[in-house]
Recover the amino acids of this structure.
DNA sequence: TTGAAAGCGCTAACAC
DNA sequence: GTGTTAGCGCTTTCAA
């Protein structure tokens, strides 16, 4: 329960705490400062005693913790799962630890978590903001106060935070261009909250693709909902029950979970995908390629997002010049059976 | 970059640091100790200044960090993903933060991560040990030294650590009982390292089920391999090429990833599941129910494992009496098409 | 080549 | 009600 301290070692080797500290930090220019004998004795004793430096005490004087805070809505979402994995990997090779916190898509816990992360004096913070703008002032405050902050996956338009996001306008545009090319002109889009950058961008890609094809935008086919499987299921069911499904050549979900719900509802109603109707998602979840009817979707490059986030964060931490404050990485289309009759 | 300190506040309100500390910790019995006016002034100023206590400084005197270290092989594995999610949730409601680290199934980074976690003076550690016994002495040392440690998902037989694991003997037994009941007597089992508790237990369930059915155990049908999709693929392919597949009624993977590889290989060879041969996995990955041929598998209750781990850890931390040092939670069979012709 | 001393931000015991 | 003091474990001048 009680750890060995520098003083314990110092006492054993009859040297001062300062000397022990020097040796154990390798800051003595490797033997220039401390005598070979004492250094070896110190090393030996510290090993025998299982000395483990107290990083908390250290931060008090060095001002650094070598900890990065990561705040995400939900690690069960494939994309965040992957990003966390890759970011953790990067960070640990660079000697950083990862403090992981969840916002559950809710600004209230988000704020609370940010506060405790700051109280731990992390060297930097990565956050994938929860939907909603409530915490923008907080993000501003902390980045103004000089704490390295990088937004990930989502951003706030009009604000100038460091951010790494996927180019969902491009991804979505390509997706819908493909669907249109399959002969589908009337495409229902079950989307999330249009306040969030995620929904906004995917909707924009939808709009662009239709416009380019000369297909009029029909507001009644764009259905606001949530981001979960049940949301897709319920909205699709409504579409079916109201008979509006007859007017649709395709139904798209704002993400793969929603698309999975859509598939369920369609199957339940005896509709065949892709024969009767096309379906698509977004995000390329782990299950998407293995569904009874493999799902056409857009792959967001999680590992690239993690890498870019890492580099950007390090640039900010080290005070290096940053060329682009908001980095966008592009997505790639995954065409599968759900939109591909052939 | 520089944070507000108690002293900054003290100076502004013309009170001592001690008083400010009292107020901000709510340790003054709510006004008993500190005057109403001063308390309010302190609260106000601390808010204005965006005061955020330095938890590192605090730990130096209180000896507590309110941080729990979690060390897992790989968060991309569904089971660890879920456990992390639920554990994080539990911990944050209890006011703890989560320090997440990866071992990548390798004892070397595992040891390194343990060391830095300890140097951060966490209040407790949860680890799902990497395969291999190399770090048992380390685990012993830290738990002997009084640091609350709970092993999760995997344990070391013969050692007396606190642990929460799934009862894979039972899960596996039920799985193979089911397969035998489907008329399959000759079951190939593509397993991992029999040194690990995971493989050992699943193999034991296999053995038990066969024994019960009076089916002789055939060593040549138990194939040692790894834990990944490619391992299942390669071993199944060997089985096919050697013609031994003819002697098998079923092929089982030590987990779902391996089973997925098996399916691939079988399909590639033109074999039909479950008509020609049965297949099963273990772990109920997210994709397993949605495969072209939905996979029979065993569900490990991640959220229950997380809950039990949390409770056990808290018991250890608070020094409460613990009734069972090694908790086992039971698994449930998920019968799907891959073993169910009907 | 080494040590003394100061100080990081905070809490807790005790005195006033 | 409030302040003084000591000390947590460490790093970092500066002096010897």
């Amino acid at each position: 329960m009680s750890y060995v301290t520098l003083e314990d070692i110092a006492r054993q080797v009859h040297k001062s705490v300062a000397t022990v500290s020097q040796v154990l930090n390798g800051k003595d220019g490797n033997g220039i400062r401390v005598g070979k004998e004492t250094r070896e004795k110190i090393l030996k004793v510290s090993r025998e005693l299982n000395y483990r430096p107290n990083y908390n005490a250290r931060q008090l004087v060095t001002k650094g913790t070598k900890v990065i805070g990561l705040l995400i809505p939900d690690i069960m979402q494939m994309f965040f799962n992957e990003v966390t994995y890759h970011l953790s990997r990067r960070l640990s090779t660079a000697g950083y630890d990862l403090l992981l916190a969840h916002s559950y898509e809710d600004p209230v816990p988000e704020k609370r978590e940010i506060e405790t992360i700051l109280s731990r004096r992390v060297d930097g913070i990565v956050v994938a903001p929860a939907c909603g703008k409530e915490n923008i002032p907080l993000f501003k405050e902390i980045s103004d106060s000089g704490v390295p902050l990088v937004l990930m996956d989502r951003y706030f338009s009009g604000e100038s935070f460091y951010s790494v996001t996927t180019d969902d306008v491009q991804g979505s545009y390509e997706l819908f261009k493909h669907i249109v090319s399959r002969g589908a002109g009337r495409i229902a889009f079950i989307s999330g909250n249009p306040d969030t950058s995620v929904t906004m961008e995917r909707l924009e890609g939808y709009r662009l693709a239709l416009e380019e094809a000369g297909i009029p935008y029909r507001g009644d086919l764009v259905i606001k909902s949530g981001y979960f499987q049940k949301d897709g299921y319920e909205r699709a069911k409504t579409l079916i029950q109201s008979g509006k499904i007859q007017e649709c050549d395709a139904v798209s979900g704002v993400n793969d979970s929603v698309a999975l719900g859509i598939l369920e509802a369609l199957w339940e109603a005896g509709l065949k995908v892709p024969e009767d109707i096309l379906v698509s998602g977004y995000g390329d979840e782990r299950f998407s390629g293995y569904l009874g009817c493999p799902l056409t979707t857009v792959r967001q490059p999680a590992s690239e997002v993690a890498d870019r986030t890492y580099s950007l964060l390090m640039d900010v931490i080290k005070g290096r010049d940053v060329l682009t404050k908001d980095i966008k990485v592009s997505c790639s289309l995954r065409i599968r059976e759900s939109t591909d009759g052939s």
